[in-house]
Amino acid sequence: MSDKTKTKPLPSFIEERLNFYIQDLITQNQSQKHLVLGKRPPRNAVVMQSNDYLALSHNKPIQQAHQAAISEHDDNVVMSAIFLQDDESKPAFETELASYVGMESCLLSQSGWAANIGLLQTICPPSTPVYIDFFAHMSLWEGIRAACALAHPFMHNNMNHLRKQLERHGSGVIVVDSVYSTIGTIAPLRDIYEMAQEFDCAVVVDESHSLGTHGENGAGLVHALGLTNQVDFITVSLAKTFAYRAGAILGPKQLSETLPFVAYPAIFSSTVLPQEVVRLEKTLEVIKGAEDKREALFKSAKSLTTGLKRIGFNIRSESQIVALECGSERNTERVRDFLEERDVFGAVFCRPATGKNKNIIRFSVNADMTPRNIDHVLTVCHEAYNHPELEFV
């Protein structure tokens, strides 16, 4: 190594921390790679690693609209969105998305992560009690921390435990996912609303995994249940069914008038670009008319879930997200390799997305999957279930 490429030694506490991560997360694995890094899928494999539930990432009309917008837009808007909050600068897509979901206003953000952190930072004074489902997305937990609020977790979808927490800590904010991204369960939103009414709480619902897939025209679970006037705030990632990037925060008009000037992710990040907004507008148009894709999605999800339960798997899914619960990291690595060697590719979820020894392999069903794909997955999973060296929770 030449003198020019040498770097100065890191402080010992940083060196120790990085080496700990290398040992804990990488070198202890059989493959000497992180647990999420398996084989690359071959061309004909069944791949269920993407959240592109309606299979829109290669949709021609969406791509063409995006390409045309890139050529047409020369707006110099590489800046924070804080400077673009006048009526002329705000994208019409925000109004369209608010109307689609049934909320009063909408603000685009850089991601679903930024949406959740920015919302909670804006609405929660320090020490606000925030009641959060154990399985809620990490961005909601991080939002609580950013707001200096107080997290009071409740057991997954357990309304009795939520009630006990509310009785103990009082009025605050209840935050849940509508569809949970790990095991595909659905939040009891009606019960949560009733609990919020009783204890004078606001309700935040992350609809990242239900917007576009659930409800009439894909308008989401809150809309499908007729709860848009009862739920105070909705957040979404537009990197799931919308198959792109960005996020959105939906709520009352007061929120859109204040959050851009309060939330750190909104202030200290560049705005979503005009050509990206055009793509999102076209995607929304396609999603509204994609009833056939939604039907195909849930038909495949039902076939997969039913088949896995018949084999003997403990499947808790109520949606297009289906998880094999594999337990320890060593066992998860073996299950992953077994599936991938037989051309079935799911997404490994491990620390910090799950608890220690609570690892899963998540299958994200999409609308383009065929009965033959489902049959192949079930055949391979049946072999895995009966394999003497593989275990499932």
TrEMBL record:
<dbReference type="InterPro" id="IPR015422">
    <property type="entry name" value="PyrdxlP-dep_Trfase_small"/>
</dbReference>
<dbReference type="GO" id="GO:0008710">
    <property type="term" value="F:8-amino-7-oxononanoate synthase activity"/>
</dbReference>
<keyword id="KW-0663">Pyridoxal phosphate</keyword>
<feature type="domain" description="Aminotransferase class I/classII large">
    <location>
        <begin position="46"/>
        <end position="378"/>
    </location>
</feature>
<dbReference type="InterPro" id="IPR015421">
    <property type="entry name" value="PyrdxlP-dep_Trfase_major"/>
</dbReference>
<dbReference type="Pfam" id="PF00155">
    <property type="entry name" value="Aminotran_1_2"/>
</dbReference>
<dbReference type="GO" id="GO:0009102">
    <property type="term" value="P:biotin biosynthetic process"/>
</dbReference>
<keyword id="KW-0808">Transferase</keyword>
<dbReference type="InterPro" id="IPR050087">
    <property type="entry name" value="AON_synthase_class-II"/>
</dbReference>
<dbReference type="InterPro" id="IPR015424">
    <property type="entry name" value="PyrdxlP-dep_Trfase"/>
</dbReference>
<dbReference type="InterPro" id="IPR004839">
    <property type="entry name" value="Aminotransferase_I/II_large"/>
</dbReference>
<protein>
    <submittedName>
        <fullName>CAI-1 autoinducer synthase</fullName>
    </submittedName>
</protein>
<dbReference type="GO" id="GO:0030170">
    <property type="term" value="F:pyridoxal phosphate binding"/>
</dbReference>
